[in-house]
Amino acid sequence: MTSDTWLVAGLGNPGPGYAHNRHNVGQMVVDELASRMGGKFKTHSSRSQILEGRLGIGGPRLILAKPMTYMNLSGGPVGNLAKFFGIDATHVIAVHDEIDIPFDTVKLKLGGGEGGHNGLRDISKALGTKDYLRVRVGVGRPPGRMETADYVLKDFSKDEKKDLPFLVDNSADAVEYLVRLGLEAAQLKVHTS
Length: 193
Known about the structure:
Elements: E1 5-10, H1 25-37, E2 42-44, E3 48-54, E4 61-67, H2 75-85, E5 92-98, E6 106-110, H3 118-127, E7 133-138, H4 148-152, H5 158-181, H6 183-192
Parallel strand pairs: 1-4, 1-5, 5-7
Antiparallel strand pairs: 2-3, 3-4, 6-7
Helix pairs in contact: 1-5, 2-3, 5-6
């Protein structure tokens, strides 16, 4: 297994109709990382769009991935890419929406439960472990009695859209900290800022 290579999977649903949904914030973050790396995504046989590159000159090698399956089937593409590139689960980072965290907040963790997130559940099944890294991008809880599924499949509100670029930017920074500094140092930077 290559210790210098990381798989960063931005979770979401495929197609333009879902592109701006809360559920697709993971893909927005991976798009931001791609723009920082100056590369373009290409289609891969794992049913993903991927971009291979380095984080800065001489930096760690990243495989940025956007699974082209629906969210709850994210495991197949992520598992296939990890196998294809010989990446251990400890070097897999899933970037995803998180309703249990307020909007505009980013949290990092390794392993643990999936909190009802079907995309994570499918990745855990495909990797055979829950011990992979997560960048949890806060989208807040649904208002009133709105169903969670309806809420995450809606676009961000007008007020949220003003702050969304900062949230995406901070989440991309969090991925970079994870890769460069490791989990504990990254948590100190992200959770205290």
